[in-house]
């Protein structure tokens, strides 16, 4: 990796809506992120995301077909993926203040391990908040693994506020965070 090909702290590769041709890269990013989570003992995602026709694969493929999944890449390949849906996760929809409308919902945000530490995730969240604002939504929301305190602190540093917790027996997620759909500004809180 040379410094001139890695995103710097003030760069986010151009994000675009993913197509079916991007699915192998999306699954590779998700698997890379899942592996890093597992290395840190975080049981947030499955060990692997497979294009096996299972419910996860169908959901990801559906987000691509609906235009809700985005990717960013550079000359070395895929750098980031994020799903931004106008629909809340049905298991948590009742927990959002004011109801589930008027927001974009983050699902499966992942960045390539090679850009960890370059603040790509920070800029991706600012970009997502801008996209939510352009879509006429007041909020950018995410449900987070209830036990991942490091991730809770990250979202709080990025301007999100915890607005509730929904406990569903079959799910580990359910810590609900939201932030206004406006730009974080040129300097992000750390």
TrEMBL record:
Pfam families: Acetyltransf_1. One of its GO terms (molecular function) is acyltransferase activity, transferring groups other than amino-acyl groups. Residues 13-183 form the N-acetyltransferase domain. SUPFAM superfamilies: Acyl-CoA N-acyltransferases (Nat) (SSF55729). This is N-acetylglutamate synthase, GNAT family. It comes from Actinopolymorpha singaporensis.
């Amino acid at each position: 990796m040379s410094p001139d090909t890695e995103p710097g702290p003030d760069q986010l590769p151009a994000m675009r809506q993913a197509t079916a041709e991007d699915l192998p890269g999306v699954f590779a990013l998700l698997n890379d992120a899942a592996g890093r989570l597992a290395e840190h003992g975080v049981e947030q995602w499955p060990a692997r995301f497979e294009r096996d026709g299972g419910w996860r694969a169908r959901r990801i493929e559906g987000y691509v077909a609906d235009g809700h999944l985005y990717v960013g890449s550079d000359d070395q390949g895929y750098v980031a993926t994020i799903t931004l849906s106008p629909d809340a996760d049905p298991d948590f929809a009742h927990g959002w203040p004011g109801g589930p409308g008027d927001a974009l919902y983050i699902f499966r945000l992942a960045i390539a391990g090679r850009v960890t530490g370059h603040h790509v995730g920070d800029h991706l969240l600012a970009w997502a908040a801008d996209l939510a604002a352009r879509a006429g939504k007041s909020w950018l929301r995410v449900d987070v693994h209830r036990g991942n305190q490091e991730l809770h602190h990250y979202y709080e540093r990025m301007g999100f506020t915890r607005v509730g917790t929904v406990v569903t027996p079959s799910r580990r997620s359910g810590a609900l965070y939201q932030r206004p759909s406006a730009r974080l500004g040129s300097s992000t809180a750390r």
